[in-house]
Q: What sequence folds into this?
């Protein structure tokens, strides 16, 4: 690590409590010097190969199978949507984004995810118990 660089350890958890509330627990601390020294030894020396570089090699007929471990997951394509909001709501979204130091889009996605999770929890609670 260069002079002035610091290594931090972070724990980020997302949990649901008994009431179905989603809790975000974040812990951040500065690592000890011994931990920093350990991390220096485990750092990879070579840079990962970009997707473009792999594509060029494949176009040239080279075997690129060693770049893929078969452990990934399929990611569905992103769908863009337009949403109309009031000016006041937009100000609230921007304030939340600024407070959290994230993008407006990240705030919107998080809030939509939380609302959907809550919706499904309520639906599940309303279902009559199955007869077993």
A:
């Amino acid at each position: 690590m260069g002079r002035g660089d610091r290594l931090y350890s972070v724990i980020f958890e997302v949990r649901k409590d008994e009431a179905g509330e989603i809790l975000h627990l974040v812990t951040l601390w500065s690592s000890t010097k011994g931990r920093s020294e350990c991390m220096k030894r485990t750092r990879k020396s070579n840079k990962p190969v970009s997707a473009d570089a792999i594509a060029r090699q494949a176009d040239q007929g080279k075997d690129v199978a060693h770049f893929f471990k078969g452990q990934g997951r399929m990611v569905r394509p992103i769908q863009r949507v337009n949403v109309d909001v009031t000016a006041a709501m937009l100000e609230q979204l921007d304030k939340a984004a600024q407070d959290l130091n994230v993008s407006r889009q990240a705030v919107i996605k998080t809030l939509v995810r939380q609302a959907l999770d809550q919706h499904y929890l309520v639906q599940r609670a309303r279902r009559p118990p199955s007869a077993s």
Notes: Residues 87 and 93 are 10 Å apart (CA to CA). The two ends are 61 Å apart (CA to CA). Strands lie at 8-16, 22-30. The chain has a mean pLDDT of 76.
